[in-house]
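In this supplementary section we document a worked example of the pipeline. Step one takes a protein sequence of length 79 as its only input; no multiple sequence alignment statistics are reported here. Step two produces a three-dimensional model, which step three serialises into C-alpha cells for compact storage. The input and output of this example are shown verbatim.
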Amino acid sequence: MGSVNFKICGFIYKNWVLKASSQRSFALDHNIEESIVRKIKNTAIKKEGVHYSIPVTTLKKICDSRNLSLSNFFKQLDL
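The serialised model returned by step three reads:
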C-alpha cells in the first residue's frame, strides 16, 4: 500500500503542486490545509520519516477543485 501512496503523492506534487505559484496557493485553490501540501511534498520526495497516507476525502477535494473525477485521476495515475 505504501508504494500507492508514494505514486499518488508523487503525481500530485510533480504535476500540480510544482506548477502552482506556491504551496500556500495550491492549498487555498484546492480547499486543503497548507500542512497537507507539505505532507504530500515530503512523501513525494521520500523525505526520511515521512509517509503520508492521503485520505480519499482529501484526494476528492483536490480532484473536485480541478474538475476531475476520482476515476479519471486514477486513470491518469495509471496504477
